[in-house]
Design brief:
By secondary structure, the chain is an alpha+beta fold. It has helices spanning 20-25, 41-52; strands at 13-16, 30-35, 56-62, 68-71, 74-77, 82-88.
Length: 100
């Protein structure tokens, strides 16, 4: 696997996405994250493995189309983002909801 600068890897993963579909994927040991739009699959894999100390088996990415956003008479777009679905090895897990 290619070596990446460990100082830049935490900036690639922005936040976990908690949607209805993402919570259903948790049963299959798949976790969904919002990542930087220019992040590649090997970079995402290295970042998740370093941040959460787990073994990543597969990374699937998706860049949803831009949606129009209107503010008064001005028309623009929502910010572009990239979604990554990360499959972990059996036995590994990430705690998204820590107990308080």
């Amino acid at each position: 696997m290619a070596k990446f600068d460990p100082r830049n890897l935490p900036d690639l993963v922005r936040r976990p996405l908690i949607t209805e579909k993402a919570t259903l994927l948790l049963e299959q040991n798949k976790y969904t994250f919002e990542v930087a739009p220019k992040a590649t699959k090997p970079q995402i894999k290295a970042a998740i493995e370093e941040l959460f100390e787990v073994k990543v088996v597969d990374v699937n990415t998706q860049t949803p189309p831009k949606k129009d956003r209107r503010v008064g008479k001005f028309l623009g777009h929502r910010a572009q983002y990239k979604r990554a679905v990360v499959t972990l090895a059996s036995g590994d897990s990430i705690t998204l909801f820590p107990e308080v």
